[in-house]
Design a protein that fits this description.
The protein is mainly alpha-helical and 112 residues long. The chain has helices at residues 7-14, 18-29, 38-52, 57-67, 70-111; strands at 2-3, 36-37. The chain has a two-stranded antiparallel ribbon with strand order 1-2.
């Protein structure tokens, strides 16, 4: 099934930000006009998830292209996921160190 929706209607009807629609169009539609298919709308949701997880625009495009034949590209998809996971864990550890430092400052201030 196809949906004759522009960016604004896609954003409104499916609660997908215009930025996500632009990223998807730049990666997968490349100037293509016309209605969105159900699978494209599902991919828009995937793009939103990948953005939330911190994937770069380049990695989002790579992920989308590889996911069209997941059996053939499972190792590459897992590598992208694992790389993003390692980066996320590193950011969490960095933020945890900052939180620990703030707690130490609070403790020191309360002791005075």
């Amino acid at each position: 099934m196809s949906h004759n929706l522009n960016q604004a209607k896609l954003s409104k009807n499916y609660n997908i930000s215009p930025d996500i629609v632009r990223k998807y169009e730049a990666c997968c539609r490349k100037g293509q006009t016309g209605p969105y298919t159900d699978s494209e709308i599902e991919e828009l949701s995937l793009v939103a998830t990948l953005v939330d997880l911190g994937f770069s625009d380049r990695d989002i495009c790579t992920y989308l292209h590889l996911s069209h034949a997941p059996g053939e590209h499972q190792a590459e998809l897992l590598q992208l996921i694992d790389t993003q996971r390692r980066q996320l864990v590193q950011r969490i550890h960095t933020e945890q160190r900052k939180l620990d430092c703030l707690d130490c400052l609070r403790y020191e201030m309360k002791k005075q």
